[in-house]
Fold:
Amino acid sequence: MPRGNPDNLINNADLTPEQIKINTSKAGKASGKARAEKKRMSQIYAEFLDKDHDIIGKDGIKKKLSGHALLSSVMSKVLARGDSAAVSLMKEIREATEGSNYTHNLTIDNDFKIVKK
Structure:
């Protein structure tokens, strides 16, 4: 479903070849920009995971954790909370690993049980 008001959409058949060329050029540039941004984010994630990080624990002791260990620790704490932050984290992980083209028709109650398919 397109964003905005569907009544404002113009069918390509109603456009001139020049207008179609302009629109496809705009779409291609926007797509390239989005791919470049996604690649930059992937590089940032990869650099974070490759580094060791100095962490001060609750006991005040400083220790080094790899990016993978730190990410695992933080994810475990966030997911254990079971709140909207946990859902956002799961969405971010899914989009980073699978892409964002998945939609569903599920309703989930407060106990994380599927109510309706």
User: Anything to note?
Assistant: The two ends are 20 Å apart (CA to CA). The chain has two domains: 17-50, 52-101.
